[in-house]
Amino acid sequence: MKGRRRLTMQLTPLLDLLLIVIFAQFMDVREREATTVDEAKQAVELRFQAEAELAELQATHQQAVDALNQAAQLVAQLRSQNQELEQNSDQLQSEVERAVAQQRLLGELVSQLFHIPGDTIAEVLTPAEADQPAVTAEQRAFLEQQFRELSMQKAGRMIRHLLSYEEMRKRCDLWELHIDETGWFSLKAGKEERGFRASTPTEFANRFYAIYKSLPEPKQLVVIMLSYGDARADVREAAIQGLPRVTERMRQDAGGTFRFEYAILGYQPPPDE
Fold it and tell me: Residues 6 or more apart from 12 whose CB is under 8 A from it?
């Protein structure tokens, strides 16, 4: 009985120590769990914060992309406007050059018909009938004065006035070419009237030349006057660019026998209105 009691007394402290160790481990585990929970909560908060920052960055990136696209569109629009301005500038320059060439042509016509040597003037102004007297010096001076006044008028009106004189019509032909709103070219050459369509300078030159070959023999000087109504820009440009080509081709075909000139009058109603 005594030996058994001593054994019991020795196991009790060991049991207490074991309980203390287990309790300490339990407390350590709880502390670690609390720390883990705090870390998990912190990780979740950091994740939410990171997601919010990422969403903000994505929104900022999208705004930057939108701004870049708007800038690119603005640049494209500015380039288009710049090209349009350049085209308008080129068109205005072409119109100025045509106007200058047109005025030069009128000056040449007046010079050719009224400021040539006296013998030639007498030949031009002498009536067809041999028994009728030639134009006097006073009449010739009067005509010259009228043409000096006409030089201040518009080209189309001046040319028509020039060719309204009977003596002028004996040497000159006026071909009136008009483009209507449908793109139809109407050519009035004396009593002859023809029509055609063309959308490119080459097509215009070829068709006009074919009509020229079918017309009766012209007089010494032919003046082609181009006008247009509400025609499309591409059709107008086809005529404006093609007219110099076909004029030069007709000059070469005539071999110096006939002279061909042209004047671009711009927007006007049809010749017969």
Answer: none
DSSP 149-196: HHTTS-HHHHHHHHTTSHHHHTTEEEEEEEE-TTSEEEEEETTEEEEE
What is the SS3 string spanning 194-235?
A: EEEECCCHHHHHHHHHHHHHHCCCCCCEEEEEEEECCCCHHH
Q: What is the CB-side half-sphere exposure of residue 35 using CA atoms within 13 A?
A: 6
Q: Do 239 and 208 meet the contact criterion of CB atoms below 8 Å apart?
A: no
Q: How far apart are CA 2 and CA 234, in angstroms?
A: 131
> For strand 221-228 and strand 172-179, is the pairing parallel, antiparallel, or unpaired?
parallel
Calpha distance 16→10 (Å, rounded): 11
Provide, for the chain, the percentages of residues in helix, strand and coil under a 3-state DSSP scheme, each rounded to the nearest 5: 65, 15, 20
**Which token pair is 15?**
């049991």
The full set of domain ranges for the chain reads 1-99, 171-273
pLDDT mean for each 10 residues of the chain (273 residues): 53 73 81 78 84 88 88 88 80 66 59 48 48 60 60 56 58 89 94 95 97 92 90 94 95 90 79 49
The interaxial angle of helices 2-114 and 155-162, nearest 10 deg, is: 20
CA distances from 240 to 50, 177, 213, 235 (A): 68, 11, 20, 9
Residue 212: how many other CB atoms lie within 10 Å = 22
Say how far apart CA 196 and CA 186 lie, in whole Å: 7
Q: What is the pTM of this model?
A: 0.49
Q: What architecture is domain 171-273?
A: 2-Layer Sandwich (3.30)
